[in-house]
Amino acid sequence: MPLDLSSLRATFQGTLVTPYDPSYEGARVLFNNRIRTRPAVIAKCADAGDVVAAVRFARDAGLPVAVRGGGHHASGFSLVEGGLVIDTGNLKDIAFDPGNATVVAGAGCGWRELDQVTYVDHTTPDGHGLAGPGGECPTVRNAGYSLGGGYGFLSRTYGLGCDHILGAQLVTADGEVLNVTGDEHPDLLWALRGAGGAGFGVVTHLAYRLDPVPRTVLGGVMAWSLDDAEEALRAYRDLYVGRDEDRLSIYLAIATDPYPDGEPLLMAYGMYVGPVEDGEQELAPLRAVGTPVFDAFGPTSYTDLQHALGAEIVYGLQLKWRGGYFRDGGFSDEAFAIIVDAARRAPSGYSMLRFDLLGGGAIGAVAPDATAFVHRSRLFNISIIAQWVRDDEAEANLRWTDDLQDALAPHLNGEVYQNYADADRADWAQAYYGATYARLQTIKQRYDPTDFFHHPQSIRLPG
């Protein structure tokens, strides 16, 4: 029997999508299309009032809920089987205060939309734009990104997305709207800065501080063949270990070029937040490695770089995402050999290995207990991302991912970036939150004592 949505439809301003609607299959698709979860209803909210109505309806109907922004949850926890999905992707209002260098953003805003307002369309008196530390993927929404940590090319200079959160508007399990600030509900603000997607409520808006970013930066991408990859990995390690400079933000990835039908290459991409000529000097050790296949670093703007790097990110492939942080000394020659060998044997041209710089600089300058984000001192991280199209490709790709994870286990420290959620981790609470987990449980008890907002890796109630 179809779910009776009449009471919800009476007040809901957005769109309600059920399995009986022609748009349902498309509305259900996540970034990870290996997830085949089928909700009873997807509530595409138009405003915070719709979120309140959806929460109250689900509570009264006894329906499980999930919260979705951009649909990028690696393990698919933004859908719930037979339940109600509260979709905040259409909450796109932006209130920019250039005088105070802050912005209040609806949960559905992407970083391109925010950067257009604060960086492209605005100039500070000293000729800069303003930006938050967003990522390059165009379909990631600011809320899910920031609440779980949130790193980008500005993070090593200015801090993580969660470090920039000044306040939030959140709908509780009772349908109450809370304004969360350092003065009102400071414990909840602490939890939202790093564990905000783990079951405290539905965030509808976030207030951020912004940072000055030059109009012209040194940015781009360069690449080496896999024959030079181990040398380049060593040079990258040596560039950052013990490094005080916090303006050079370079990530690595092994991916095919052209994507997905070309040969696998090791690519270095990112930017220098400062004068271009200074950036050229800082980048020199990487440019000296081997014989680059290409070197496209040069003067550019922050937003042009973000657009260029996000252009080939494909939404709707099947994927499995594993990995973790390297232990001290684990980002080593032995690990590099394992990684390059695995890259040569990847069964899909869509797959990639990413090495994101998630610690050090301004990230590491924050005490590990100052927010719910604890992974601040670890410089190096690997994401093993198998991606494929057809169901019959799944077995080979899943095996490739798990085999590489097992081979690298002695080199990793057991910590996992919570925005790269791994459904296979039985120890997820320790891997994501470490020593802060007990404090998060206490806050969960205070704001969601019935565990209304739960998924397989949400914060558990104490006891």
From TrEMBL:
Residues 34-213 form the FAD-binding PCMH-type domain. Keywords: FAD, Flavoprotein, Oxidoreductase. The keyword Cell inner membrane does not apply. Signal peptide: none annotated. Coiled coil: none annotated. It comes from the Bacteria. Its cofactor is FAD. Belongs to the oxygen-dependent FAD-linked oxidoreductase family. PANTHER family: BINDING OXIDOREDUCTASE, PUTATIVE (AFU_ORTHOLOGUE AFUA_1G17690)-RELATED, FAD-BINDING PCMH-TYPE DOMAIN-CONTAINING PROTEIN. This is FAD-binding oxidoreductase.
